[in-house]
Specification:
By secondary structure, this protein is of the alpha/beta class. The protein is about 35% helix and about 25% strand.
Length: about 400
Amino acid sequence: MNQPAPVLLLGMSATGLGALRLLGRAGVTCYGVGDHGRTPAYWSRYCRHGISLPPGAIDNEIVKTLEDFAARVPVPPVLLPTSDRFVHLVSSRRAQLESRYRLLLPDHTLIEDLLDKQRFADRAQVGGATVPRSAMLRGLGELPGIARHLGFPTIVKPACKEHRSASGIPKVILLEREEDIAATVDRYAGCDGVPFLAQEYIPGGDRQHLSVAVCLDHRVEVLATFTARKQRQGNMGAGVGTYVEAFQDAEAEQDAVALLRALKYVGVAEVEFKRHAHTGRLYLIEVNPRVWTQVTLPGACGLNFPLMFYALAAGLSVPTARRTRRRFAWQSLWDDFYNTFRRGGYLAAGIVSRWQWLRQSAQARVGPYLDLRDPLPAVAQLLHVVRRAAKWPM
C-alpha cells in the first residue's frame, strides 16, 4: 500500500497555522518551516515537527533546508507556501525543488505578475477586470504630484509585497488630505529605493471589501468558491481584516472565476474586490496566489481549501465540498479589540457599539489562534501579547 505524502508548510505565521489545522484534522501528516522564530504555529498539536530558521534567512539557506528535509522523509512531500515571499521563492526554484516535492503552481510569469502591483494592474485589465487608476512611484519624492493628480483620498502601497515586509511599511497608507502627503514622506524617508504604487481610493466602507476564494484544477476547472466580507480592518477603510464574515455575492464570484480562468490559474487563490459605494461597480484590488489568513472561515463552512490544494498536488481525488448554509465569522480577537476601542477607532467613529462588538465576538466561529481543539497556539500568542504590552524582554 502506498504511503500517503506528508505536507511541509513553508511559513508558520497565522496563515500557516490555519492551513496546518485544516490539514491535520483531515489526517494529513504536517511539518513546518518558518523564518520568524518560534511562532504559535509551532505549538500546534498538528505540527509533527517544526524547523525554525533565524529571521532574515536568505533564499539559499531556506532552499537548502527544504532539500535536507525532503531527503529525510520516505515519500516526496507536498510543499505548501503560505506567504507571498515563499510562493515566489518556490516558483523561482521550481526546477530545483520539483524532483523532491509535489508542487502545485501556475506559470512563473503569472506568479510574478500577481505579486508586483503595477504588473498585476496591467495583467488584470487584459483579463477583463476593472482596476483602480494607479501610478508607479520610483520613490516617495514623487508622491505630491501623483497624489494631486489622482485626487483625495489616495492609497499608497509598496509595489512589491516583499518590500513591505522588509521595510516595515504598512500594507496600505491612506492619504485623505494635503497634509498627509508631507507626513508620509517624512515618516518613510528611510525607504529610499522602494518603489510604491499610488492608487485612487474607491469610495466605500469596510463592508464593501469582498474576498473570493477559488480552487481550480489542472484543467482550470473550478472545484470550489467561497466569498467573505470584511466588517472591520487593521486600518479603518483599508488593510488586513480583523472581523470577516461569510457572505454571498454571485457577481464577485463570477468575476473572480472569469479572471482566474482567463489567466489559466491552477491551485488555490484569494481574489479581493471593493464595491464602489455609489455606483455598485466591482473593482479588483489584488489576487493572493496562495492560502490566506482567514482560510479557516471557509473551513468552518465546510470548504477545506488547504486540503484541496494538497489533493491536487499529491494527485489524489479532491474531496467533495459540503458547504453549510450557516454564516460564520472569523475574528482576530486582540487586533479587532484594539482597532475598535483605540482612540479614533470604530467605537469612537460610531461604526460599532460596545454591545454590537460583544455580540459579534460571541458569534465569531474561528480566528487565527484560539481553538479549543488545539489550545497551545493561543496560549503562546497570549504570552506574546502580555510580554509586548508589559514591554518585558522577549
